[in-house]
Amino acid sequence: MKTLQQNLQYLLQELPPIDFDIFGDNQKLLNAVFCGNYQDTMSHNTGTSSSVKPNVLLENLQQQIINFIRKLTPRTTDHQGVRYCGNISVFDVTPNVSSVRNLVEKLNNPLRLANFFSDNIKDYNQIADSLQDAIASSDLAKAANYLSTMVNQTKYGRYLDLFHNSSDPNSLLELIKAVTENFENVSDCVRFDRFVMTSDENEMENLAVCLSDYQQYFTGIVFPNFTGFDYEIGPFTTYKIRHNPSIVDFTYAIMDNKKRTASRDDPIINLHYIMFGFSFLQEAIDKHLIEMITNESIPQHGVYAQQEPYPCQNSD
């Protein structure tokens, strides 16, 4: 178990740089809190014990401060390859009740179809050689060879390669396989199982902080009024989208003002809410909520290209 001195050293590393003149830096901040050098305090002997025992209340306060700082400033931390979060998805949804799970099922349909397509591509890569050999030994190849005597060899002869066996890279299915293998290599880097349910918003925040260390956290969806297990979605439904803070702007960064004269036509900088999926996710949730309330399927109607639902926002 870590000693209190070790915990305080860790806290010192976790604190962001302090620029206030009254303290000067993190070390002076801790000295001010402990009325002197806290390391000297920790090493002080009482005469009855070799060292001061850790103060449990102070350790709890320290952990609360660390958690608060990490929520305000999620960061990327090197953990020597150890994944503390486990193999989990990057769409956090809360609470874990039946109506929310039904909504997630609808949101997950496009990803499920993409996963099905990816699996079929992988299956094709496994059997492409056998299928091409079957074509080469079939009557179809013989027919093509017979037709070749009746056409211009210079102009149409290259098409005969399509009916050769799998050892010929110009055969039909081998040409297709060259493309699908590249797709398979790319698809291995894509996560299709991206939703994970959490019991409440506090658990989602803790999970998001951990995921942020590995740049895995993308967004969170919160339904704050869904308290009962059998809560039914009604015509007045409130939800929150809690995007990774690095891919959305704070309020005053997107509001026009007289001091800002530069053009705002750089999509990566000035269109965060569109470039990084906030508006698309908002549209998808709205669409499926309407379907669940009306019990009718509605067509895909596209996305309203909005930077922010201004003026319906809270100032940061």
Write the layout of secondary structure elements.
Layout: H1 4-14, H2 26-33, H3 38-42, H4 56-72, E1 91-94, H5 98-136, H6 139-148, H7 153-156, H8 172-187, E2 195-197, H9 201-212, E3 219-222, E4 240-243, H10 251-254, H11 267-270, H12 272-275, H13 278-294
Parallel strand pairs: 1-2, 1-3
Antiparallel strand pairs: 3-4
Report on the structure:
- The chain is mainly alpha-helical.
- It has three domains: 4-72, no CATH class; 108-187, no CATH class; 194-294, no CATH class.
- Helix content is 48%, strand content 5%.
- It has 13 helices and four strands.
- The chain has helices spanning 4-14, 26-33, 38-42, 56-72, 98-136, 139-148, 153-156, 172-187, 201-212, 251-254, 267-270, 272-275, 278-294; strands at residues 91-94, 195-197, 219-222, 240-243.
- It has a four-stranded mixed β-sheet, with helices on both faces.
- The longest helix has 39 residues, at 98-136.
- 10% of the residues are buried.
Numbering strands along the chain, what is their spatial order in the largest sheet? Answer: 2-1-3-4
Shape: elongated
Q: Count the beta strands.
A: 4
Low-confidence stretches: 18-23, 41-52
Distance between the termini: 39 Å
> What Rg is obtained from the alpha carbons, in whole angstroms?
30 Å
Number of helices: 13
Q: Please give the share of residues in helix.
A: 40-55%
Nearest-integer average pLDDT: 73
